[in-house]
Structure to design on (546 residues):
DNA sequence: ACCCGTATGTTCGGCATCGTACACAACGCG
DNA sequence: CGCGTTGTGTACGATGCCGAACATACGGGT
């Protein structure tokens, strides 16, 4: 999938047309499932070291869940679930980063949550809903473990620790969304962009992110032009370097100083467990 | 408590000084407890018709919870819990409306959630946390039922329906926060203010709200002056009327048209149950 | 009846971000 | 190698909201 079609995925489909073409989604998901890694060794490696949420589970629950888990590779721009459409798979990111987007009535969208190895994509299912209220889009390619929705739903009641982790993560996502409200309200775009780079970098566990400035603009609800200007400023300050579809963090402490303190506040709650 | 001291409650206490004076909070809470209504009849009336969340519980759980519930009257500006401070009581609003506020590093705060008869104040406790990440402030005076935190925590595991309602409400609050992010990002202040009036009016079940424009400004993260200007515009359009510490909705359909569609989207999810 | 605290109304310059348009540069493919 | 596609850089006016300062009006208490 090209960057452009990825962006199309991001922006198409307003709230008035939530009954989107299910076939299209399936196609994307099927595309990812063709990348399934079948080697048990890889599966175990992914599982044990990858998801801090799964790693926190006791052995019994871990094994019970493992049966239904399937490793997949997710690519930038892939849509994992759409708002108001029943969730098919729950994803536990391992190396990928997933962005949650909410739309407004005229179709514009903005990121409202960021999930990595510490979390779950498809939380709503664990809270008893069949569908999420947001779109989940892959913001950094990488591996994930997924489980079918029905299977997850039937396993969850037998796994108290998984439940506990899920609720803890829900609390963290709630705090993340709420901090984002305050941050968007009071802080300048420069600080917000710096925060986004840091948060995504933390979850991708890499100083280099492969995405376009258009993508970034969509995430932050800014114009592409604004992102270019900010990136230029940060680059002149030697905090980052930019290429074509590539952003690298050069000076992490410097970037943290340029970001607002919402960064540390969110990460403390989110990545602490 | 005067409106001014209420506003002081709202704005004092930045994130750097989260270890606020516990004595002061206790004083406020004790003030409310002096207004406890002791008549069993009133208690029953409050319980049955007031909280749609409690009303959805089956008889057995209802009665089990009832033992610990205590009716209180909450006044504008009262702080029910502070971020990072252990929650003492869970509140089920009946006639009051409670606003959840998040602060940023420099102490400024903005509303990130609105709770009425449909919800719970102190959700974090139900998710396994001891403290919330937000401040809960009364935005419209009225009655509520409260229960001690420890008691709630011990009762919850025995009440599957209560758990289910709690998780359903958590999902709704998450959706509310996320929709607020998008709304603040894309919609003009006029529409946001209209939305706030409608949402608060729905929860207070009254066309008249008793609060100052300063209070409203704090909630929306705007200047008081901006609120005055917007209120003037809405008033000229005969949608609302304003008095000193009083706002009345005159033309509800008109105000809904002036608000963004985030209003109906949030209310559909939140008040549907 | 008066006064003072409190709430509301008005003005002014500043500026971050927007929408739009256009130019340039890198990569991929025939 | 040339060409179209895609990503990045620059310019310009418009505007919504901000910060600050000041003016007015309501209303309860002495």
């Amino acid at each position: 999938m090209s960057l452009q079609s990825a962006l199309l995925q991001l922006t198409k489909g307003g709230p008035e047309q939530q009954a989107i073409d299910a076939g299209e989604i399936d196609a994307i998901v099927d595309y990812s499932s063709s990348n399934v890694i079948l080697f048990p060794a890889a599966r175990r490696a992914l599982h044990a070291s990858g998801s801090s949420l799964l790693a926190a589970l006791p052995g019994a629950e871990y094994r019970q869940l493992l049966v239904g888990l399937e490793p997949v590779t997710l690519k930038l721009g892939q849509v994992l679930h759409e708002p108001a459409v029943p969730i098919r798979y729950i994803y536990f990111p391992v190396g990928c980063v997933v962005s949650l987007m909410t739309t407004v009535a005229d179709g514009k969208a903005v990121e409202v949550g960021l999930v990595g190895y510490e979390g779950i994509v498809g939380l709503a299912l664990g809270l008893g809903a069949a569908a999420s209220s947001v779109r989940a889009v892959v913001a950094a390619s990488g591996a994930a473990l997924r489980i079918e929705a029905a299977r997850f739903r039937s396993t969850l009641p037998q796994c108290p620790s998984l439940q506990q982790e899920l609720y803890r993560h829900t609390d963290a996502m709630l705090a993340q969304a709420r901090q984002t409200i305050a941050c968007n309200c009071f802080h300048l775009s420069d600080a917000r962009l710096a925060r986004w780079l840091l948060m995504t970098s933390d979850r991708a566990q890499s100083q280099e992110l492969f995405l376009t400035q258009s993508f970034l603009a969509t995430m932050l609800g800014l114009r592409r032009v604004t992102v270019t200007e900010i990136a230029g400023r940060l680059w002149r300050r030697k905090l980052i370097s930019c290429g074509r579809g590539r952003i690298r963090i050069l000076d992490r402490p410097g970037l943290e100083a340029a970001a607002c303190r919402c960064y540390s506040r969110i990460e403390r709650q989110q990545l602490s467990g």
In short: Residues 1-9, 11-45 of chain A have pLDDT under 50 and may be disordered. Chain A touches chain B through 45 residues (CB under 8 Å).
